Amino acid sequence: MGLKNKDLLGLKQLSADEIMEILETAKAMKMVLQSNVKKTSHLQGKSVITLFYENSTRTRLSFELASKYMGSASANISASGSSVAKGESLLDTARTIDMMATDIIIMRHSQSGAPHFIAPHLNASVVNAGDGMNEHPTQALLDMFTMYERWGDFAGKNVAICGDIYHSRVVRSNAIGLNKLGANVSVYGPKTMMPIGIDKMGCRVADSVEDAVKGADAVMGLRVQLERQHKSLFPSVAEYSHFYGISEEMLSKAKDGALLMHPGPCNHGVELPTCVYDCDQSVINEQVTNGVAVRMAVLYLLNARRNNL
Ligand code: CP
């Protein structure tokens, strides 16, 4: 039981069996969340620190709640308000946290590969909570858990992901994970937001939103990441929404009952209109709930790995 590696850096480093173990463990953790007493003792006597160099609501809060529900001591550090703002390096910051007998560090950073850089220097396990444009493993795990609860299996399922593919660490982690579990992934977005080589990650590059979503079992919109754009990559919001957004009409081209997903936060009226965000097929709110269960599962399995050392 537990994960093979000390750290959870990406879906790239997880086997299909490990992903399934996380999803199965998340089922049990969701039952804890739905019970009257949201408390376990799995992390009693352990410490979990979130270290965020980028903003976050869902990821940071769900990790913090997950660790507290499991009985750990937990604390948050942001780049602003810490000695990072005085110029302390990433490695010195991470080592300082590590030297306080920390068991697990959850880190988000704007630089791709930042968690991979610090992990070998630390005794603590490092969880990647999003690194630049590389991976966001726990987001993909919660997305896959949301699908798994509905489908029970991934083989032959079709997942369409539309929007700002280039800047999205969510699409990269989902593509890697879904492929490992036997699902097919189609992507579509503006040519200016389509990374070279995305097809080599096992994604079919569609010709239009309609082409991407046709026959899909799940349709995922992605946030336009304006904070990572140094120049405008599309002419106007109206054109983006018209050509690349997931409208009610486009969603109707997917399979009956297809799941409508979005990692959040959503730019309403850009990647999808509010009526689609709130439609009966939308599982966006469920994704948020599942985020806590999946992060409890990740903390549980990393701790099991540490105890088995
Ligand atoms: N999906 C996601 O990572 O959201 P936050 O930026 O709010 O954590």
Helix content: 25-40%
Structural class: alpha/beta
Which term fits the overall shape? globular
Query: SSE string, helix = H, strand = E?
Result: HEHEHEHEHEHEEHEHHEHH
Identify the bound ligands: phosphoric acid mono(formamide)ester
* Rg (CA only): 19 Å
Write the CATH homologous superfamily of the largest domain: Aspartate/ornithine carbamoyltransferase
Number of helices: 11
In the CATH hierarchy, the third-tier topology of the largest domain is known as: Rossmann fold
The number of domains: 2
Say how many strands there are: 9
Q: In CATH, what is the class of the largest domain?
A: Alpha Beta
Q: Runs with pLDDT <50, length 5+?
A: none
Strand content: 5-15%
Between the first and last Cα atoms, what is the distance in angstroms? 12 Å
CATH architecture of the largest domain: 3-Layer(aba) Sandwich
Mean pLDDT across the residues is 95
Could you give a quick summary of the protein structure above?
By secondary structure, the protein is an alpha/beta fold. It has helices spanning 16-33, 58-69, 90-98, 114-118, 137-151, 169-180, 209-213, 237-244, 248-251, 274-277, 284-307, and strands at residues 47-52, 73-78, 104-109, 125-131, 158-162, 184-188, 203-205, 218-221, 259-261. Strand 3, helix 4 (114-118) and strand 4 (125-131) form a beta-alpha-beta unit.
Structural account:
It is a single chain. The protein is α/β, with parallel strands linked by helices. It folds into 2 domains: 11-135 and 288-308, Aspartate/ornithine carbamoyltransferase (Rossmann fold), CATH 3.40.50; 137-284, 3-Layer(aba) Sandwich (Rossmann fold), CATH 3.40.50.1370. It has helices spanning 16-33, 58-69, 90-98, 114-118, 137-151, 169-180, 209-213, 237-244, 248-251, 274-277, 284-307; strands at residues 47-52, 73-78, 104-109, 125-131, 158-162, 184-188, 203-205, 218-221, 259-261. It has a 5-stranded parallel β-sheet. Strands 2-1-3-4 form a 4-stranded parallel β-sheet, sandwiched between helices. β5 (158-162), α6 and β6 form a beta-alpha-beta unit. The radius of gyration is 19 Å and the shape is globular. It starts with 15 loop residues before the first helix and ends with a helix. The mean pLDDT is 95. The structure holds phosphoric acid mono(formamide)ester. Phosphoric acid mono(formamide)ester is lined by residues 56-59, 130, 139, 263-265.
